[in-house]
Amino acid sequence: MAASAVEIRLPDWMAARALPAAPASDEVCMRLAIAVAAENVARGTGGPFGACIRNDASGEVIGVGVNLAMPSGNPLLHAETVAISIAGARLGEPGGVTLFTSCEPCIMCLGASHWAQVSRIVSAASRVDAHEVGFSEGAGTPQLRAEMVARGVVFVDGVLREEAAAVLRRYAGQGGVIYGPKS
Ligand SMILES: [Zn+2]
Q1: Which site in 3, 92, 106, 125 is 20 to 30 Å from 158, CA atoms measured?
Q2: Region 142-157 average pLDDT
Q3: Cα of 178 from ligand 1 centre, angstroms
């Protein structure tokens, strides 16, 4: 029989981690996304990506995620989709939400952001940085992104890019598995 439930289990070290005080600035949120990406690599609990979601009215961080694709066996569990899942019903609270992600979202995470009604997406490392270490994000993101921009979603790229790209290189350099389709 097929599984009747799917669990998203964050690494124990994430549960122990304190969230930034509200209101959290863009820089604080991006540093959090990159820090959890780095810790995910250092502790061997998943891929080199981190993300968080902030309610822009209160400045409260309502979800934090790391890439769990490999340890969970679930290819849907990118940092962004995990953060969106953790935020869950709180995504609908007034004020709009910003997604901070340590790397430009792939097409799946852009699609998830669309359905989560994320109003702003701030990213650090670029698709090019991800490709350079072997991740193949596929085509289609420019088209979806353009449609989201037309709907009013704001994109901010390259915030603390070098710090996030360094996490990708550290992961690849220590032999981390490059999951997903091959280039
Ligand atoms: Zn993704």
Answers
A1: 92
A2: 97
A3: 14
Q: What confidence tens digit (pLDDT) does each residue in 82-131 have?
A: 999 999 999 999 999 999 999 999 999 999 999 999 999 999 999 999 99
> Hey, what are 78's tokens?
């990118």
Global confidence as pTM: 0.96
Q: How far is the CA of 97 from the centre of ligand 1 (A)?
A: 18
Taking the domains of the chain in order of start, what are their residue ranges? 51-139+148-172
Ligand 1 centre distance from Cα of residue 16 (Å):
25
Instruction: Report the chain's mean pLDDT, rounded to a whole number.
Output: 95
Q: How far apart are CA 83 and CA 64, in angstroms?
A: 5
What torsion do the CA atoms of 73, 112, 141, 155 make, to the nearest 10 degrees? -130
Which two structure tokens, joined as six digits, stand for 129?
Answer: 């940085």
CA of 80 to the centre of ligand 1 (A): 6
- Catalytic residue ranges: 80
Q: What long-range pairs does 106-109 form, CB within 8 A, spacing at least 24?
A: 106/78, 106/137, 106/138, 106/141, 107/137, 107/138, 107/139, 107/140, 107/141, 107/144, 108/76, 108/78, 108/81, 109/78, 109/80, 109/81
Q: In this structure, which topology does domain 51-139+148-172 adopt according to CATH? A: Cytidine Deaminase; domain 2 (3.40.140)
Q: Residue 1 has what pLDDT?
A: 72
